[in-house]
# Entry
Amino acid sequence: MPRYKLPDTIQIGPAHYEISYEDPKGYLALLNLMGEVSHTQRVIHIDNTNPDEVVFETLVHEIMHIVMYVYDLDNEEPNVHKIAMGIAQFLQQLEVE
# Structure
């Protein structure tokens, strides 16, 4: 898999979000999550102890939650997961470095 320069911030529509890549302590560890997004704090938390490919897929997944939230779409987990995995697979095929 190609290496990606993962962003520290993103903008989806009018919303700006900070991205925090961290060792899962507290909330992430307690709920056994690889990532989560807080719309009130506008921050994405990503478990950076996973392999690079999983970190990338998790980031795409959390960004999809933001897209669904900002554009008032069905933000149900099964839908977000399926769309995010398809987009992550496509982006990986681009072999962006």
